[in-house]
Amino acid sequence: MEPRAIAILGATGSIGTTTLQVVRTHPTLLKIAGLAAHTRWRDLIAPVQEFGVTTIALSDPQAAQEARQSGAFPASTRILEGPAGLTEIACLPEVHTVVSAVVGTAGLVPTLAAIQKGKTIALASKELLVLAGKFITAAARQSGSQLLPVDSEHNAIHQLLRDKPAHDIDRLILTASGGAFRDTPLEALSQVTPKQALQHPNWSMGPKVTIDSATMANKGLELIEAQWLFQVPMDRLDVVIHPQSIIHSLIALTDGSLQAQLSPPSMAYPIQDCLLFPLRLPCPAPRLKLSEALTLQLTPPDPRRYPCLGLAQAAARQGGIAPAIFNAANEVAVEAFMKGQLAFTSISAIISETLSQSPQHEPSSLEDLLAFESQSRQLASRLALGRTP
Ligand code: MG
Description:
This protein has helices at about 15-25, 40-50, 60-70, 80-90, 110-115, 125-145, 150-160, 195, 205-215, 215-230, 270-275, 305-320, 320-340, 345-355, 365-385, and strands spanning about 5-10, 30-35, 55-60, 80, 95-100, 120-125, 145-150, 170-175, 235-240, 245-255, 260.
């Protein structure tokens, strides 16, 4: 059997490099057909050599130019550029699975194009479903493309739901680590710094996700994602804080029993699950050792500590453009916080104000949605600038 060909959008980030590690572990089953990054072309030199990749893309044309002129790649390497380059990588005829791991919304158009071609999508960028869940799931239904969640929580639920009839399922329960300020006194939260927020207790992730984990805006985005992925309404989704990040999520069955998926906090597990699905093989990450004592805590989140969670739930219930506004306002607010322009506790205030000052809207097309999204981004920027830290 031919190895399954993988394209990675976001090849130089933490999901991208862990994907390479999984592919390296299973060379007879997996191969790399294409790699795409934003600007970091130097980080593609080694994987291009190691995996014999013939096509790469850089969304930044300047970076593509530099890569071509560097002489660091074999003469046979095709170096594509711009958003169209990402789309071409995602739609290469030999590609079976596209790992969609571009930060933000730049992955939307290429991922949608791959879905329309019927490719399997290992979905790691949560913004895509939050923004365009309606369009993405409709396109997948039409082409028969499979959407497999890379995010550890959704991957856990995907594993738990396999082969279970819908009438057996009562609720889906996403676990959350609680982030860097889980135990910080509430009154100290307004004074915390970006540096403190970036110290995540369990996961090593990009800075944006790490801040989102501290505010739990991340879990809010994940709730919205779960609605689309599993086609369940918000009132059947719960969040529980689990500081150890060993239980990646749970499902509650109709009879009241709970089932959970446990593994160490390594993204190699969910990534491999997506790439080899439905095969299970040894994963290139440490295993849980039950020969050592293991304590697992589960506690409900305190809404005073995590106001972003309630805002995300409200946006999801509102539907239409609201989840996209939640995401845009959060991105703007987190950026302002990182620059020292906004207090940590004002992140939720900016989201709340942006949501309440934006009109309700049901987007008719992706273009319509993106236009509204960029308006709410501008509104959030004005609101953030109006505040001092
Ligand atoms: Mg997650």
